[in-house]
Write a structure and sequence with these properties.
With about 220 residues, the chain is of the alpha+beta class. The chain has 7 helices and 13 strands. The two termini are about 30 Å apart.
Length: about 220
């Protein structure tokens, strides 16, 4: 039994949407279905994954724009996340669509908001929910302790960190989230960011100019 995933860049922002599944049961989730719904639907069917939830790390359009259409394509699966502090982003999706020249996306609410300590389950897999405000106030990270793998949305990138110049973003809060919520999970944790290539917490802790702390890796 192991956790499998495939990252699919979607939208003109090349947002990393992740199809994540349990290889023992083929049950899975989709993290941040930002758009390109037909492409995602086709790949889910090709992989043979039975998607049981769509999970959102935060409320920005490039991460959530395809959520309702994909949920519909997959037979009305449940939408969960982010933390309710991002509701104002989800309620402002029509304005975001116009601002960024995206297809019109209507406001929606998930079936369930996520809180620190919640768990996302599919098949025999469990992802821990970690509330990581800063990029947005309701941002969450999903962590598999078994796989030493995290889906971090726009909190942390390979060599950078998330922007904090959006409404209710805060740089100091973001850095605190990274250092107090992510680093304790371990140097060897691999992470899938919302944009760009994967990395590990250890590599970012050693070399990322925004959050490096010269902590020895061993």
């Amino acid at each position: 039994m192991s956790l499998k995933y495939q990252v699919v860049p979607v939208t003109s922002f090349s947002q990393n949407c992740s199809i994540v599944w349990c290889d023992a049961t083929m049950e899975g989730i989709v993290v941040d279905p930002g758009g390109d719904v037909q492409q995602l639907t086709m790949l889910i069917h090709q992989l043979g994954v039975k998607v049981v939830k769509l999970v959102l790390t935060h409320g920005h359009l490039d991460h959530v724009g395809g959520t309702e259409p994909l949920a519909s394509e997959l037979g009305g699966v449940e939408i969960v996340g982010p933390h309710k502090a991002d509701n104002f982003w989800l309620q402002g999706l029509e304005g975001q669509s116009q601002m960024f020249g995206f297809p019109l996306t209507h406001a929606f609410e998930p079936n369930q908001w996520l809180d620190e300590g919640d768990k996302i389950t599919f098949g025999q897999q469990v992802l821990d929910v970690i509330h990581t405000p800063g990029h947005t106030p309701g941002h969450v990270v999903l962590f598999s302790e078994q796989a030493k793998l995290a889906f971090v949305g726009d909190v942390l990138f390979n060599g950078s960190v998330g922007r904090t110049d959006f409404p209710q973003g805060d740089f100091n809060t973001l850095i605190t989230s990274i250092k107090t919520k992510l680093w304790p999970l371990g140097h060897d944790v691999r992470f899938v960011p919302g944009h760009g290539p994967e990395s590990t917490f250890g590599r970012e802790r050693a070399s990322n100019p925004f959050v490096a702390d010269e902590m020895p890796l061993y």
